[in-house]
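Input/output pair, single chain:
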Amino acid sequence: MHPDSRYETVPALDNAGMGPWTHDPVEPPDGPGLLASRAFWVGGLLSVLLWGTATALALSWW
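Output:
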């Protein structure tokens, strides 16, 4: 059986630019945080409206 030449072009993981695993804790970024984000609240409101509408339609059909 001949080796497949396609695998010879795959780079090794050592050359992938990944560094060693670190056990240092990740510091949270500075800023207002997720709960102060306008996109978080708008997305949550749209989700509630979508699910509420779908639930109302499903209950009215039943």
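The CA atoms of residues 15 and 39 lie 38 Å apart. The chain has one helix and no strands.
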